[in-house]
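Read as chain and fold; for instance:
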Amino acid sequence: MENISYRPEIIYYLSDYSKNLLAELYSHSDGTLDVASLMILINEPQQLNKLHMSLTELTGIDERSGLSELPLQESLFRSQQWHQYYLNNIITLTRKVNQDPNLTIKPLSHAFYFEKM
């Protein structure tokens, strides 16, 4: 994707394999690659960066999550939902700690919890 953003003309020289991978995220109803949507994305650096971050996060999710058995677009959507849920929990915890100086947030490898002082 980044290479395409630097040299958009290479979109016409991609292998069938690369086109199929991109079509998992950007496709017409018939399954073919939606070049117009892809070109819009690569011209929006914030959206391209967001997608890059989401894909990077998706690769770090444990196989036991079941996401590897889903289509890429659905896996990406669910991963983004989980990350948003996680972020919302951190925000909620932070607000509670700000309201009560006797509370602290203690990290675990997979979550956070309160500890009353």
User: Anything to note?
Assistant: The longest strand covers residues 103-107. The chain has a mean pLDDT of 80. The longest helix spans residues 72-99.
